[in-house]
Amino acid sequence: MIVETLVLHASDFIEWLDASGPQNVARRVVPAQTLDVRLSLAPSDLQLIHKSSGTALWRRQPEALRQVIAGEAAPADLLPPDEALFPIAGEVSDPAGHFLPRRFSFDAGQRTGHRLRLFRSALGTRFGNAGGLTGRTELADGTPVAWAVLELRVTPPLADPLDFVAQSDAHGEFRLSLERLPALTKDAPAETYPAKLKVRAGPDGSDPDTLPQAQVRGTGGSPFKQELAVDIAPGRIATLASPGRDALVLRFP
């Protein structure tokens, strides 16, 4: 005989995803227990429960989120209650240093679920047989540009374009893995693949989801462009930089 049933509903859920390297592949979930999540804006009754699959957001209000039902719960008793959205903001970091810290903000509640991207640090990035790119992002005067998101599209001959993403750290340094980039064939018409680079960056903040597109220094009459053409040599580790410079030079919009 069931005397009573405890019914608990989470308000929302966060998945922390490894967003670095090749895109358009299944993203690996970063276990929430390995992360340090600090909230700067949240309801006073909010509690975070970290699990391998993500972080659950628990609240005491409205009261229907936590109920004790006399006897066995009926199907209607298991339905989640109506709940108003509430703002949440904070910063997540990785004590082990494999992922870069980031800020976040969104409206939570109603169990909609949120997928927040984390980018690997130089320490957490490994280069395989496909090679990769290293470098740093800075302004024309040499000031480092922190937290810039680099988006690289490579177009191998007779294949669909491949997208890769990385983020620079607090010092502007980055490592971009080219994992899954196909190797050159023996009869390849060239030793490199053509690619286009775009960068999103801003003078402050570390929320990669809100960064505007920056301009990248190239060549020609108007040196700062929306994208930079580069040649990628599969299997090699190369430095990515603006022409005539030892770093990738950016300009904010």
Automatic annotation (TrEMBL):
UniProt-annotated stretches for the region Disordered: 198-222
Protein name per UniProt: Uncharacterized protein
Organism: Aromatoleum diolicum
